[in-house]
Design brief:
Length: 351
């Protein structure tokens, strides 16, 4: 009888046992600190892929005029840390979300237009069997700030998650120009994909649009949700849970050490109508100016029914390299009304 109970316990145990430290950068299976930022996670079959910008050996910088943690926007194009033209799109693979192997640069420099890249998001299209990358792109200009009015997203695709991704669209047809931060989400039932983004042309106000069936462009004004934030907001998170859609976002926060909030909106469909839950789940600490989680949001991924928030703890690297800034992971806990509860900082995540 005891043997039978032990066997049943093994059979019904969760698929994944997850541990992630929020106090130090993660090392890959070869012992190297992972250089992985502003990206997303994607599961295909039994394998996880973690995409993110690789900032290599550049040092953290601090300016004297706002944004204080982001002086590179004022410097010569391609020279500031986080604004160089040689940053990589790193991809790592894992079967258990703990042991990661570096799979290489998925968007090689010699195969992409010259410019500054950041905040990559990769999704898989089951109809076309293609992996699709949307990534922020600043074309060459005198400074990154001068380039922002012409900012766009480059859309690339690949037969393999590890790449190489090839650009297939440099004018994806969104309603608002001057691309800001963006995220992608796929409806698990219909396979339809959506983008939540802000733009320089609208003062960084966030809206949602539906993508084309091949995920290579937006349907633009035809499906725009209307503004879902006031000005000066970015880093949206878009995901679905129990047939309810969630949009979370914070204030503009360029490599900021204090982190940004997470306002919550919900809807029955990705295009709305959206309802303000009137809750900031990453609250600001009184007097200090910091948020409880001093991170800027990247993505929310689901594993075994758990929804995990990920964000960059900018300026957290012990050695002062932006490439080694720590990634924060924390589970979103939902109340009886299906609204994420206010988060607390955890030294580690265990599922």
């Amino acid at each position: 009888m005891t043997f039978v109970l032990l066997l049943l316990n093994v059979l019904v145990s969760p698929c994944t046992s997850l541990f992630h430290s929020n106090k130090e950068a993660v090392r890959d299976v070869d012992g190297f600190l992972m250089d992985q930022h502003d990206g997303n996670l994607l599961q295909v079959g039994g394998l996880w892929y973690w995409f993110g910008m690789g900032y290599t050996d550049c040092k953290l910088e601090k300016g004297w005029i706002p944004p204080l943690d982001c002086p590179g926007i004022y410097r010569k194009f391609g020279t500031g840390c986080g604004f160089r033209t040689d940053h990589l799109l790193n991809v790592y693979t894992s079967s258990d979300l703990e042991n990661w192997k570096h799979a290489g640069d998925a968007f090689p420099i010699d195969g992409r237009p010259e410019g500054i890249y950041f905040r990559p998001k990769v999704i898989f299209n089951e109809k076309t069997e293609k992996f699709v990358l949307w990534i922020n792109y600043l074309p060459p200009a005198r400074t990154p700030l001068a380039a922002y009015p012409n900012a766009t997203y480059l859309v690339a695709q690949s037969d393999a998650a590890e790449g190489p991704f090839e650009v297939v669209n440099d004018q994806p047809g969104l309603m608002y120009e001057g691309a800001g931060d963006a995220t992608l989400a796929v409806d698990g039932e219909t396979g339809e994909a959506y983008i939540a983004y802000d733009a320089w042309s609208n003062g960084h106000r966030i809206s949602v649009e539906k993508l084309s069936d091949d995920y290579l462009k937006s349907t633009g004004e035809e499906t725009n949700s209307g503004f879902l934030s006031e000005k000066k907001h970015e880093a949206p998170l878009l995901f679905e849970r129990n047939n309810k859609w969630y949009l979370l976002y914070g204030h503009t926060c360029c490599f900021c050490r204090f982190g940004s909030g997470l306002q919550v909106y919900t809807a029955d469909s990705a295009l709305g109508p959206w309802i303000d839950a009137e809750r900031d789940v990453n609250q600001r600490v009184k007097m200090s100016g910091k948020h409880v989680i001093p991170a800027q949001a990247n993505y929310v991924f689901e594993v075994d029914g758990h929804f995990v928030y990920t964000g960059d703890l900018w300026t957290s690297a012990e050695d002062g390299l932006k490439s080694h800034d720590v990634q924060y992971w924390g589970e979103l806990i939902f109340d009886d009304d299906g609204i994420p509860e206010i988060m607390e900082f955890l030294d580690e995540l265990r599922l």
